[in-house]
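As a warm-up, study this chain.
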Amino acid sequence: MIRTEELQLNMGPQHPSTHGVLRIVLRLDGEVIVEAIPHIGYLHRGIEKIAENRTYTQVIPLTDRLDYVSSMMNNFAYVLAVEELMGIEVPERASFIRIIMAELQRIASHLIAFGTGGLDAGAMTVFLYCFRERERILELFEMVCGARLTYNYFRFGGVSQDFPKEFAESARNFIKYMRPKLDEYEDLLLNNYIFQKRTKGVGVLKKKDALSYGASGPVLRGSGIKRDIRKEKPYSLYDRFDFEIPVGKNGDTWDRTWVRLEEMRQSLNIVEQALDGLPSGKVKAWGVPRMIKPPPGEVYRPIESTRGELGFYIVSDGSARPYRMKVRSPAFSNLSLIPVVIKGHQIADVVVILGSLDPVFGEVDR
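Now compare it with the structure written out below.
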């Protein structure tokens, strides 16, 4: 029942303000939001069910279409889950390559989140700068696997092919180029008076709410909770790398934006360490059959993706296709926070707060 002095407003689905196919039903008292109810599930791609009718290898390109802004991460989580089912040991060089690609992907994805976060608040320049830098990462990806968005690069037991000879030098040049750019972004956006007024104290997520709603990634760490699966439950060879976990203090929109900037700095450090220690050897394990048939069993393998805890739950019945597959989407869980972080704010704050959650709807509607 709606009170007569209140207004019910549908916001979305539209791009870019609601980041795609999200509809939020707002109950308004003037400009103030009394209630915000998210309605998700308009993409209707059904990748989890499609995967159950494909062979394990045929599923790898499907994972690219989940979080299509961070495709390497989806590849990573899926192949790790199947490798755990199969008991496949990945060569050391392949593990280093995977980490390099994953951290470059984290930077590329955070650049979109950071740039569009500024754009949501009216800052156009930083948006253009972020896409300029992201282009350099896409050139590195294209150099390695020939693709710029959906990569299909990871394989069971390793990766599809080794780095070309010029990759290491190009990657080091990018690191050298990128570090001062991040300092520039900090001055341009995070220290900007208008951006601070639009984001500080706006969309505050308390620690208890972050934990209760299953938040993860920069959204969780922005609320001051120092949880990162790369540290907490190290996978691949992350335990060999030295990096910090940035955490916010107030859990507001500004903190979540700052966490992503700091994570880009840490990812640059990881990539540099991996390039320095990159061993020689094979990039794919020997003896991996063309037709994958894991023994009957089940596995859940989470990784720290760009948006948080991305996990693949797979049930095998011993056949060449997954009996069941379920994707734990961090963007889906983070969107459940909308009623908590938006309530009490004004309509103009909705887009800024939503952008700080950084949803990608390819993995929300699975």
